[in-house]
## 1
Amino acid sequence: MTEIASSRQLLAGLLRWVVVLVPAMLLLGFVSASAAGGGPDNPWFATLAKPSLYPSPSTFPVVWSVAYVLMGVALSMIASARGSHGRGLAIGVFALHLLANFAWSVIFFGQHNIALALGDVVVMAITLAASIFLFARLRPVAAWLLAPVMAWVLFATLLNWQVLSLNPDAHDAGQAAGAVHVTF
């Protein structure tokens, strides 16, 4: 087959991916946070000292929802770039980012391990940076869609570090209080 797809066919292919991946991202993010008991209602988290730049708790679900939509659209653009050299690597690196992303709530809220969560969010930032680089080689717009996500992940890294600095013994306190640990 030597015919090139029309712009309408390319758009239809992209939209099929968007219809699948955007809701999947939102669902996985929700399940990750819910399974770990994440959020301001978590009793352990409520006892932690928060940094002065900690935003309103209502900010997090809004920003993460927007981030997951952006990630879903960006990934859809790459997934629909069939035959592009480097597509598989870009998707694979992004999958590592998602694994670290979804693990963070489990590590932080479920295991009460702020230090390990900090390491995880650093991995999130590194794999997202690599994804942006790889996406830019295939679909520059997809890379730009990830730029606000990177800004948020870097802010989350700063927050995680500050929470750890303010609560250096929080993991030990969670252990002593009989915390439930989630493993995967």
Note: The helical segments are 7-35, 43-46, 59-79, 87-110, 114-138, 140-166, 170-176.
## 2
Amino acid sequence: MSDAVTRRKRFYKAVEAAPSAGEGAAGGGWTVLLDGRGLRTPAKAPLAVPCRALAQLIADEWAAQETHIAPETMPATKLANVVIDRVVPHRAQIAAELAGYIGTDLVCYRADNPKELAAIQARHWDPLVDWARTRYDIHLVTTTGLLAVDQPPATVERLSRAIEAADPWRLAVLHGAVTTAGSVVIGLALAEAWIDASAAYDAAFADEHFQITRWGEDSEQAERLALLRRDLDDLARIRDALNAG
């Protein structure tokens, strides 16, 4: 069965970002109108977002749909749905899930051999560790061993507070970045715009790209990495829209 058959047909003509009639549970003052009617989430809640730039990003996604709606091309819409239907009612649990990555953060686990890989990791990860140390007044323990290391309690507490302080929209961006990169440090650096999507991708997949230079890349791996890169690009665009207001 073709995608054109399984996907919902485009059912609207006009798309517009507009002020929301009422502020939603996620703190939204803007919405998107399809032929004058406001979007709703899968749970039937009004889709209301906190700023015009994000509403316009969502509107652009809907306007770009042709004969059928392709949800995989609508990351800002997806994130808005997730924030309203899932993040707002489960914010504490999501923050706790992300805090669980602190003890196994990618940037803290280094190779000692081969030396070329160790140098690549240091080039990508040392600036992130230094940034986190200054930004949050923490000490991150790094290791070249295989066993997990415990981070100092103050480090865990301060990074956990940074996660918990994020509003629902930025928490959703952070969740996407942390789970994609396997690193709270990389996720926070991207969410706070200290690094761009390209730097986040290079840091998150430094090991994998080193292996590719040695052994080559198969088509399945290339496709997976391209999707992960796209996810980080999308998150950075949504972050920029939130920051633009």
Note: The longest strand covers residues 15-19.
## 3
Amino acid sequence: MTALSPVSSTSRTDNTAGDFLRVVSVLESGLPVELGTAAQPASYTVPLIFSRRVSPHERQHIEDPWTAASIAEECGGGPGLHLVVSDRRLLVEGTTLEQLRDGLARALNDMLQELGRELRRVGDERAAAAEVHVQDERRRTATVHAAVSAITFE
């Protein structure tokens, strides 16, 4: 395994992701001080920084054990992979910088992009349903108004 120096990753600069949640960098100061020494742990927690605050629904999905298990299966990680949201950080437990470099970072990005697309789809469906409701309510009030207007007391 090739040794890595704990260098922050760069963030994407294109705007194709819109407001999707994404990881922008590794929080170097949160890495174990033993990295690069003989006492380096086999796996550890790597803190990542999110692009924005995480919504409750996003948090629920990210922290679901199934999410970590499917990511670990996709990129060959071990069963110790665990994802924890802490404010604007993603704590990737049971991993290494090497695993992130070798596919885990891409798998995390893919999961967040898919989550963003799913949330956008659900939001669009809710907005469409709300618009149908508004149109139905307008028709109903117009019908009631027409019925009331047709009543005379002469």
Note: DSSP finds three helices and four strands in the chain.
